[in-house]
Amino acid sequence: MLLKEEINKYLNYCKFQKELDDKTIKAYKADLEQFITVIGENNPDKEMLNAYLVYLHRMYKQKTVKRKIASVKALFHYLEEEELIEINPFHKVKTKFREEVILPKIIPRDIIEQLLNHLYKERSIKEYSEWRKKIILRDIAVVETLFSTGLRISELCHLQNKYVDLKNGVLCIQGKGGKERYLQIGNNDVLSILNAYKKYFEDEIKKQGYFFVNRYGNALSEQSARSMIHKYAGEIQADINITPHMFRHSFATYLMEEDVNIRYIQKMLGHASITTTQIYTYVTTEKEKEILQTRHPRNKINIGENFDNLVY
To answer: Which domain holds residue 222?
Structure first.
């Protein structure tokens, strides 16, 4: 059995039967091609797989290693189910390892407030042309939506007009793996902005079919959204690099700090597993530590000389 031929069949299976999206297929393909480049095209044994795992750990960060291993394990699970191999070699290999916890990067509340105030102020400058004001309105709508809903930037850019119900304040999101979820826009100011944006861009939206469009009337690209946010972050001289995904992290973290049930946050984010959502509990733990260090009443109690005599 040549792995290269079976990989092509497996990728077709993923695309047409499992109906995975193009990005996922592309990632699988890259991981599996790397696998056969390193270990060869013949069915690997335990020793070869262990050597490949060592190679991955030397070359990549833990999160990337985990994904690459998962891609290869999924292939061999498919081969086993299709009875193309008698024994799955991964059954004999230990692939679990301790992962480092990388905390999500969030945008401080004051910077979000500063950014939004800057955008609204820009929109109100009388000297600007109507065209420029129109584009700024679009930019406000994008930023407000990212922070209000926790959408992935890919989900925002691919949001179709037919899935936007502003009358009831509901968005129907086509998420990862074709999974559908509904999100409520709970802030009236954000709804007003989205209604104003839709009114100004009505012709472009109807023609293109996507809710968020660029200055040329085409669907807004992820790169354009990133560049736009980077530009405004520079204008307010933010001391952090702000990306669209950081609004998603901020959305989840600040809801967690307000004691919103983690299951609701999981549903809103579109996470398949609660484990993915639990990463935000680490961030709120850091916040709790900061609160105790700065606001606990013990910090205001002065023991004076008695403390110095005991410690020093």
So the answer is: 109-291
